[in-house]
Amino acid sequence: MSVTVLGIRHHGPGSARAVEAALAELDPDLVLVEGPAEGDAALAHTGSLTPPVALTVYARDEPRDAAFWPFAEFSPEWRALLHGAATGVPVRFIDLPFGLSLALRRQEQAEAAARAVDADAEAGGPDGAGSRSADPPGASSPGDAAGGDGAGGAGGEGEPAHLVEDDPLGWLARAAGHDDPERFWEDLVEHRRLARAGPGEPGRDGALELFAAVANAMTELRDEAGPGDRVSPTRVEHRRREEMREAHMRLEIRRAGSGADAAARIAVVCGAWHVPALTGAVGRMSATADQRTLRGVRAVRTDTTWVPWTHARLAAESGYGAGVASPGWYHHLWTSRDQATTRWVTRVAGLLRAADLPASSASVIETVRLAEALAAVRERAVPGLTELNDAVLAGLCGGDPVPLAVVREQLVVGRVLGAVGEDVPTVPLAADLARLQRRLRLRPGADDQKIRLDLRKDVDRERGQLLRRLRLLDVPWGTPAATSGTGTFAEAWTLRWEPEFSVAVVAAARYGSTVADAATAVITERTEAAADLPAVTALLEAAVLAGLPTAMAVVAAGLERRAAGTGDVAHLMAALAPLARIHRYGDVRATDTTGVAALAESLMVRICAGLPPACVSLDDDAADAMAAAIDSADGAFRLIADPEHVERWHVAVRAAADIHGGNSLVNGRCTRILSDAGDIDQAEVALRLDRALSAAGVAPADAARWLEGFLGSTGSVLARDPRMLGLVDAWLASLTADAFTVVLAPLRRVFAAFTAPERRMIAERAGSGLPRPAGGGTGPTTPTGGPAAGGPGGPGGPAAGGPAAWDADRVALVLPVVASLLTIPGLERTATHE
Amino acid sequence: MTTSTQPPAGIAPETTAVPARPVGAAPQGSGDQLLRPHAEQAFAAELAALAATDRRRRPPSWRLSPWAVVTYVLGGTLEDDTVITPKYIGSRRLVEVAVATLATDRALLLLGSPGTAKSWLSEHLAAAISGDSTLVVQGTAGTSEDAVRYGWNYARLIAEGPSKDAMVPSPVMRAMAGGSLARVEELTRMGAEVQDALITVLSEKTLPVAELASEVQAVAGFNIIATANDRDRGVNEMSSALRRRFNTVVLPLPATEDVEVEIVSRRVAQLGRALDLPAEPPAGAEVRRVVRIFRELRSGVTSDGRTTVRTPSSTLSTAEAIGVITGGLTLAAHFGDGRLSAEDVAAGLVGAVVKDPSTDPVVWREYLEGVVRDRDGWKDLYQACWDLDTEARGR
């Protein structure tokens, strides 16, 4: 048995080329790759994947506990997988199974939680017990420099700042006299092919030597690393995990090389840092010791699948931190087999031209020359990304960093979304989603995509429903945008597919096997958990919009149950409004709303019955809420517009308006509703107003509240009707100084809500003099023949008082003049006739 | 290494021979007596040491390899333990881009706010690469095309008619003939048509002399370093045709207070030597104080990020900070006890900040009262500025 360990840098195109060459040369009969052991099952699908993709392992009991191993086109591991697929050589993953590390993490979190309870301090354990998606060991591994894993967790307080294991390449680079480890590794390994490029020379001979050199270097480093003196608990834990991982890999390698079906030539592809541990150059663990290390942990049961990934997520700045800063550049290095520099600058120029920025071919030539000159100044064999960026900034962007940012986003990182084939094992829910996406022609894309749906069309309606259902499943693929006044038939959405949605889909799979079923189940669950009636009603609206009849029935049932149980009429009224909307607009979306109609009916009956008693003895806050609820219910009744129910409603409102000892705000509000509906006439309104404001029996504060309720937020009633204004004016004039102070604040509040034209109109009327109620009695007011009568104010107003009060002789004197002024021939004649 | 190699001038009808001045003869007198020696005089020893140890490839006509030029500008220690002082303190990346540009066909445009060491860097690059930083065209509104191309000695022109001898070559023409670097200072201050006279020079690398039916072709190694200012008013925008012929390097203001303090201290020490001041080198604390005031007024916020201050109309560049300290040192040396005190600094400080007499005094007074007064250990400076202010108002 011969074992060759190929130490690589995750996501390094040079490493990828070297692995490709080395595997071709070695022709192994088994390839082992650093990756979770559970992933083997998913390897059958390698052929149907388009990188970037990520191997996803998730806990069966809680799919949100998931980890990802991303692979790009230029990842060495991916080349190893492809080698296996192309030659038929079996490939296996040998790293610690995710199920095991997850079990360990849960164990730790439980312990940490217990500790936290004991200590009653320090939120969260060392790993941050609160963060569920914390990277498990190894998950971040395919990104870091040379496999020194767990960059996130390492580096606790009170320990030496620079441990070798955190930054092995940095140490190596410094030892070689370089200050930049990235550059050092790039020059040495990643750009290697470019350095000795040539069609005749495949660079094959160098590959194995290169790996041998890497292995030697890493052995030196790990010897150097040692245990360290003072290390934090996090560090101890991290090292223990590393040991377990390496022990597992060693056991797997031994197992592969022994037994009946032992492989003769084994190639192992793993992060460079692990090479010495796997070859036995350091540590020298025995098989028994390894087994002991791994004993006593029960793995969590997991499932494995592939999900599409993006370059943006491979980049270091993204949340998952897979750790390559420039996947687009690496991809370019991988795909352009020659003249990488020139091709890159050409692509940059193309991008700038697309953005209407000047980028001539002459500039391209000069930029390439500058990049090469810079590489020479910096003593590099070929220009790297740093040189190219500097050259592009000086040569193509005129020193302006803004266009360079575009280059960075679109080329250096790149906008590539991977894809997985049909046959990839997937949760049924994801399969259903894929089917729907195909049928509705909605393609997931990494870029923002704006669509506009016409709800009268079947396809568009289904699209809208799908997006809303997905939102219920915590997959906010589409974000509804405010439509610009095109009515209820149009919906605008912005679509953007994030790779983690694939995980959310897996997580939502426990709700059901189709999108519709799962969304229904989510609504059902939330209905059960909903705290109060309005929350359930909101769910009902969601169910209707998402077109889920079953869910609607469930929510309606829950609503009915809760409505029966609740004595709170305000809640019932708040619940009625969305029902009315559904009732009215549901048919736009062709939803069956019979159930809603029945429910609304029962609610209306109960509201009408419950309203008057509910308006008794309310304090000011409760009255505010009640008035708002009455308003919304009134809107709902008007929307449903069933004459029978409206009549019943008005009876209830009248009762509420008449309640003595209720809050006068509610009384006023109810009076207004009746008045607006034409249920009581003007005279009646005036009577009620007069009564409510009468100085004798009503406290000024209550009067002001009544007025507040009555006027609501519009002053039109005062502006239009001089009689009302007169009443209010008279009441105001009758107040004592103290009482005026009391009502000033509420009145100010009321008037502040009016529009400026209304206020101006009221002020003009008040300024021009008002008809005063005669004697302040309760009967119909009679305008006296004051100076105001012939004034410009109130056409028609004075007439309502009846002709008896007028002095006909004096009127006759004025009339001809008025008539000629107004050019009314008839009036003139009448006047002369008299 | 890519360089601009020009074909020999065989095809041209006649090549006007312009005497390229031997470099050693350029500046007269010894460095000791000069008010301000050129870079190649002041740092002759360093340049010689670099040339002696430099084994790397040099582009045609370059006196040093690009690597050595970068080392000369940024400082370092050579194999033979010669210490090279840093001339420009700032990003290595920028200097590398600048040097690499000069080795290509494109000219170098140094862009930046006033006082960001554009001319300083340009002078040192020319000194290191060509050993001569004196081929300068100073751009002003009055700069004529003659300064970029060639002029005439009118007495000879009238007496002898157009001839090579009657022609007065511009610095650019001399640089072309000698394969060295020409510097164009304040490029955007020149009129647009004068700027555009450079286009032929930069793209064709030749300067036609119509009167003599001949031309001057650039010798390999020729290139232009232009500086321009992106903040001042009254500049003439560069045409895009000209801009395309430059690689642009934007020189930033010093990134941190520490860097700026280092720049000011270093430069003040050099100037102090040059001015032969008997004063002690300035205390770091005083330099730091001036730099902090400059930075705070420039950025509009105090260094702790807590207080917003108004920004005066003045540029407040690092160069001006150097001026304030040097001025203070001179005061201290001749009228004080030789030690830089708050009073010595105050006068220069106020002069640097208050440029617009209508608005800046208010900004400065607000800053004095709001920031300087309450700062620990700044009492003396506050008092000095305040005295100065009262004095000025009393007058």
TrEMBL record, chain A:
Biased composition (Low complexity): 129-144
Segments crossing the lipid bilayer: none
Segments for region (Disordered): 115-164, 765-803
Biased composition (Gly residues): 145-158, 787-800
InterPro entries reported in the protein's UniProt record: DUF5682, LolB
Record PANTHER family: OUTER MEMBRANE LOLAB LIPOPROTEIN INSERTION APPARATUS, PTHR30634:SF14
Protein name, as recorded: Uncharacterized protein
Species this chain originates from: Parafrankia soli
Lineage: Bacteria, Bacillati, Actinomycetota, Actinomycetes, Frankiales
TrEMBL record, chain B:
Residue ranges occupied by any ATPase dynein-related AAA domain in the UniProt entry: 108-246
Region span, Disordered: 1-33
Family annotation (Pfam families): AAA_5
A single GO molecular function term of this UniProt record: ATP binding
Protein name: ATPase
Organism: Parafrankia soli
Lineage: Bacteria, Bacillati, Actinomycetota, Actinomycetes, Frankiales
